[in-house]
Design goal:
Oligomer: single chain
Number of strands: 9
Largest sheet: 5 strands, parallel
Strand content: 5-15%
Strand order of the largest sheet: 2-3-4-1-5
Structural class: alpha/beta
Number of helices: 23
Number of domains: 3
Radius of gyration: 24 Å
Length: 485
């Protein structure tokens, strides 16, 4: 079947019209919808109710899955993708989401229950209270306020009795109560308080192993779980048992192709598929992973060749510039070699909006490079929302040629008085500073802070480097690399 110029342009328009920001909240106006659901096979372990701790970088889908599990209709659809997890037998409640309202628990509610000078024991009482609140909701009772439940939680016998009654009732009806905790990076604006609250929660999660049918599930950033300030004897076991929420290349391309198959350009996409001897699919087939384009890399490569050409340059030596399938994955990874859906879709969307539309494909290599610039800018902007100090550390490095010896990087930060400015800004605007001990921080701590979140890394020869995902937006240079705009 032939594909017309109009078909290519319709697909280009459809990609360009995709929402660039696919961020989600566990509930509220940005809660996940059925139309947004894509369920990679690799995420099955993260969705398993038995997995208490799920780690994922910003943009990996922590809040999406927290919200998907909390929505009955989306959860039923996810059960098609993961039939062995028993998702249809879950009763899901939120223990913390960073959002207020009737369904959520946020920092304000936490602060009303846990004093500023509180220690781990008081933090534990609060987290136990969120479990008790969930058990009351699961029993269709209007729970007491969290302040009152925190007082109840101090009574060990009463607390355990309430949970055990709920656990027994759930067992009778072969159901599981899943208590979800998301946006846990928002619990505090100081390192000491965050450590106390995080440790208290992890201790409660460990104790919850005593009940079979009431299960907590934490969606955590890796740097929060790996915080060296945490002091809990069972912490190594929790870290080892944590599930990583990551996306591989076939997951990301499967997401893109699923959006096209189910989107407004489904008909021209079907003709493009037929031209490469590939078939389209229904939503159910995509969720059930029976569509080849959700898992088969060779089929995905053939289709990417139809969309963008096989190589990042034309001519007999074009293969030396890399394949269009591999190039986005290599240039969008952070220092942990992870690529998020936000960055990947951002690159493809940027490519579809760049320059004149080609007549025989949807996007071209120059568009893909432009898409990297757009994805890089978006990624740094999003990172700034989570770590408001990041741009202050990146700005002095603009124009530097990477990789570079650490002493040269540290000297740049020293001349810009970066450490002092980061500490002052964190104090003035009330956010978590980049340094656990601000009064003792130096330029090396700037690198440690950026390494901790995957923005910088050390090469084997000792020089410091930065992934293209951040380097391009930060206007740092690299021989042979994509130049900043």
């Amino acid at each position: 079947m032939s594909v017309s110029v109009d078909d290519f342009r319709a697909l280009r328009d459809a990609i360009g019209a995709m929402p660039a920001d696919v961020s989600s909240d566990a509930h509220g106006i940005q809660a996940p919808s059925l139309d947004e659901l894509y369920a990679p096979q690799t995420h099955a372990a993260a969705l398993d109710p038995a997995a208490s701790i799920v780690q994922g970088a910003r943009g990996a889908g922590k809040s999406f899955w927290a919200g998907a599990l909390g929505d009955v209709n989306v959860r039923k659809a996810a059960a098609i993708a993961y039939p062995r997890l028993g998702l249809e037998r879950l009763d899901v409640r939120f223990g913390f989401t960073g959002l207020g309202g009737p369904d959520g628990v946020d920092k304000d509610k936490l602060d009303a229950c846990v004093r500023p000078e509180a220690q781990v024991s008081e933090a534990r009482d609060f987290w136990w209270a969120t479990i008790l609140r969930a058990t009351e909701l699961a029993a269709n009772r209007s729970p007491k306020s969290l302040v009152e439940l925190t007082k109840v939680a101090k009574d060990l016998e009463q607390r355990e009795r309430m949970i055990s009654v709920c656990d027994s009732a759930l067992g009778d009806r072969q159901s599981t109560l899943l208590v979800i905790y998301d946006a846990l990076d928002t619990v505090a604006s100081s390192w000491s308080r965050r450590q106390i609250l995080t440790q208290g929660l992890l201790e409660v999660v460990w104790s919850m192993r005593a009940w079979r049918n009431v299960r907590p599930k934490l969606f955590l950033r890796p740097d929060q779980l790996e915080d060296e300030g945490l002091r809990f004897v069972e912490l190594p076991k929790q870290r080892t048992g944590a599930v990583q929420l990551t996306w591989n290349g076939s997951d990301l391309y499967g997401l893109l192709f699923a959006r096209l198959a189910l989107g407004p350009a489904a008909e021209p996409f079907g003709r493009l598929l037929a031209s490469r001897e590939l078939s389209s699919a229904t939503r159910e087939e995509i969720l059930a992973h029976t569509w080849r384009l959700t898992y088969d890399e060779s089929s995905q490569r053939r289709l990417m060749g139809a969309l963008a050409g096989d190589f990042m340059a034309d001519g007999p030596f074009g293969h030396k510039k890399g394949r269009t399938y591999d190039w986005p994955l290599a240039h969008l990874s952070d220092a942990f070699d992870e690529v998020t859906p936000r960055s990947f879709l951002g690159l493809v969307i940027g490519a579809a909006k760049h320059g004149a539309a080609p007549s025989n494909r949807v996007i071209n290599p120059e568009g893909i490079k432009h898409g990297l610039r757009q994805a890089s800018k978006t990624r740094v902007d999003q990172l700034d929302q989570e770590f408001p100090w990041i741009k202050g550390m990146l700005a002095p490095l603009a124009g530097q040629l990477l990789p570079k010896q650490e002493a040269e990087i540290f000297e740049v930060w020293k001349r810009a008085d970066t450490v002092k400015q980061a500490v002052l800004d964190a104090k003035e605007y009330g956010y978590l500073p980049p340094f656990p001990e601000p009064s003792r921080a130096g330029e090396r701590d700037c690198y440690v802070a950026m390494e901790r979140i995957g923005v910088m890394f050390r090469r084997k020869d000792g020089r410091l480097d930065m992934p293209d995902l951040f380097r391009v937006a930060a206007k740092l240079l690299k021989k042979g690399g994509t130049a900043p705009s």
